Amino acid sequence: MDKHPDVLYKAVVVGVIVCFILLSPSSFAITKERIDHPPYEPSNPVPPDEATNVSIYTSLCWTGGDPDGDLVIYDVYFGKNNPLYLIVNKQPSNCTDLYAHLEFNTKYFWKIVAWDPDGSTEGPIWSFTTIESPPKTLYVGGSGEDNYTKIQDAIDNASDGDTVFVYDESSPYYENYPIRINKSDFSLIGENRETTIIDGNEENRIIISISGRGIIDVNDVKISGFTIQNTGVGDWEQNKDGIYKDSEVRNVTIINNIFKNCVVGIHFRGEGAKNDIYLIKDNIFLWDANESINVYGIANFVYECRIINNTFRNLDIAIYNVGSLVDFSGNSFICNIIGILHYPLGVFFCNIYRNNFIDNRFHVIDSFIDLFNKYENNYWDEWIGLKFPKLDFLPYIGISIYMPWIDRNPAKEPYDINV
């Protein structure tokens, strides 16, 4: 009989602990020595390399990333010839707006340099050529002699490539809904998003519908500078959207708007295709009406959508996402029931990084077959490293209805996101 059973027991316990540490994933403090790599070479430019007939209001987007999962920041170089000028320095987003109007029928060149703590990777030089002839601008509201009084009338009299500009002094606008946009390379611009208001008057209708026109596709639509509000209440699938994009429309940019008391703020249908641009940026989504039933900020069904620098507040579901390869970055999710709800039957290769998740009942709900979605550098208000600073080496482990997921490098402070 062993005279020292407690010694044998302790030896077995120590052996189990050592094996567990050696086999543990990288989320534990003790790991193998890490080999650092520079970022991936920037790729998949939008507009595509050597594209023609590009809008003078285009944005520049690309695919980046890092093999080690490090935070990557980007320099953007742009110009008509070499040497290119540095126009954006060290931004975390892989999309940037060209706020200065470009010239017509002009060839431009651009490149991206990606940086992480281990070095930089320079991308190739890409080019595109803008559209040949200047479009016209039609005006709604205000005091101009030829200005329209209805937004729809101006759109109906516009052509592909035109802009409809809406003054705020005739706001709020009440239209025969939905307002239908079926033009390509078309912009609907409000004077000021705080004061240029399109009011759905709670008619339980879509407020703005971006739709195809039979066998002719509609491409490149931009909407910016409005408060879009009051769709009415009810189920989200009953056509109560602030902005609806049907599956025949490609390349849509929604920037710098306020969506207030819309059952769905933005509803994107269709899968999309490689090199399409779907950009939702610098918008505010909120609900402050008394009654709410399944209120959504965004219902996204397209692949490769970029949802950047938006604020979502007091919604049932801030983002319902069915699309794979979606980037969520720089957003604030505050006081929602669910921040991001991924489709239960599988959403793949989404990047969720540098967002704020604060006071939501569920920050994110991932499905049990959602694969390769990456969470990095987000601020989670319930992370144990905030409550116990000595444990700030631990990852954030999100426990959802289906399965846990991990942010290995959570942020220690919320990001200052100005929308």
Explain the layout of strands and helices.
Elements: H1 5-23, E1 43-46, E2 51-54, E3 59-63, E4 73-79, E5 85-91, E6 95-97, E7 107-116, E8 119-122, E9 126-130, E10 137-140, H2 151-156, E11 163-166, E12 179-181, E13 186-190, E14 197-199, E15 208-210, E16 218-224, E17 227-229, E18 241-245, E19 249-255, E20 258-260, E21 264-268, E22 278-281, E23 284-286, E24 296-300, E25 305-308, E26 311-313, E27 317-321, E28 327-329, E29 332-334, E30 338-342, E31 351-353, E32 356-358, E33 362-365, E34 374-376, E35 379-380, H3 384-387, E36 396-399, E37 404-407
Parallel strand pairs: 2-9, 10-11, 11-13, 12-15, 13-16, 14-17, 15-18, 16-19, 17-20, 18-21, 19-22, 20-23, 21-24, 22-25, 23-26, 24-27, 25-28, 26-29, 27-30, 28-31, 29-32, 30-33, 31-34, 32-35
Antiparallel strand pairs: 1-3, 3-6, 4-5, 4-7, 7-8, 7-9, 36-37
3D architecture notes:
This protein is mainly beta. Helix content is 7%, strand content 38%. It is built from three helices and 37 strands. A ten-stranded parallel sheet has the order 10-11-13-16-19-22-25-28-31-34. The protein is globular and about 65 Å long. The chain starts with a helix and ends in a 12-residue tail after the last strand.
